[in-house]
Every structure is written in C-alpha cells, then in structure tokens.
C-alpha cells in the first residue's frame, strides 16, 4: 500500500527548518500531489521522469521555488475541475447528526452510544461523509465544518434553529 500524503511530511517541514524538500515517488495521484504541497514539500519528481527534469527540479527548489511538472499539474487541475462539476449526493440526517457530534469532540463509540447504533454504523457514516466531501480524516472534517460547513460563532449560526442548521449542513454536504 502506498504511503499517505501525511507520511511525506518531514521533520524539516514540521519544524519550519530552512531545508528544502523534494519528494521522489514511483507514482502519486492528483490529490496526493496537492496535499504534499500543502504540507510544505517543495517539489515532486516521479522516478520515471527524465534525469534532466530531476536536475531542473533541484535547481529550482534550491533557488527558492517550487517544482511542478506542467503536464502533471494540467492533468491534476483538469481532474479536480471534472470532480467538482459532478453533483454531490446530499447528506442524510444521520450523517449530519454524526458530524455535529464529531465536531463537538465525541469519539466513534460515544457517538454510537448516544445515537443507539453500532460503532460500525458510525464508521460507515463517516466514510460516506469523507467521500461526499473529498476528505480523508476527522481533522479535515472538523476543519471543513468550522470553515465551510458551519462557521461556529457567526451571528447567523447563533440565530438559526437546530433544524435550519441541519438543513444548511445537509445542503453543504
């Protein structure tokens, strides 16, 4: 199984050291490529690329830039735009309830106990939510909820009733 993008993060990136990082990979998909740049990786080179491209990448990264091979970038942007254009399935009420409890800090077992369902049901709901929102973790879901899905603390969210909040979240998912 290939490493997940979070596995690419290095100590240098985490600690903000001046080290420049280039990832050499056998393959990388569009989402992973974007994620490694979010993590602070400065360049990505595929193993089967021409050696001259590796040299160009190293020079550009050493000069303070980022290396993005244009054909890969074009392909990634086209694929992401195509994905964005697809209609997203609406969230179920159960999924909305799970998200609400999750962002309050509840663990899967606690959510399952509260909703009186099996823990595997909660995992299924989370899997469906991640797929619908193109997310991969609880942390990403909580961040999405705070920013795009349900900005907590806004005057709008304070004045809305619970059913309106659920409808707003369901529409966003």
Explain this structure to me?
- The structure is a single chain.
- With 173 residues, this protein is mainly α.
- The protein has two domains: 81 residues, Response regulator (Rossmann fold, 3-Layer(aba) Sandwich); 80 residues, Arc Repressor Mutant, subunit A (Orthogonal Bundle).
- The chain has a two-stranded parallel ribbon.
- The radius of gyration is 20 Å and the shape is elongated.
- The relative contact order is 0.09.
List keywords for this structure.
2 strands, 10 helices, Arc Repressor Mutant, subunit A, 173 residues, 2 domains, elongated, single chain, Rossmann fold, two-stranded parallel sheet, mainly alpha
Shape label = elongated
- CATH class category label of the largest domain: Alpha Beta
Whole-number radius of gyration?
20 Å
What class would the helix/strand composition place it in?
mainly alpha
Model regions low in confidence, pLDDT < 50 over at least 5 residues: 151-167
Kindly summarize this structure in a few lines.
The protein is mainly alpha-helical. Helices cover 60% and strands 5% of the residues. Strands 1-2 form a two-stranded parallel ribbon.
Furnish the topology, listing elements before pairings:
Layout (H helix, E strand, L loop, with lengths): L10 H4 L7 E4 L4 H9 L4 E4 L4 H12 L7 H16 L7 H11 L4 H8 L3 H15 L4 H12 L5 H5 L2 H11 L1
Parallel strand pairs: 1-2
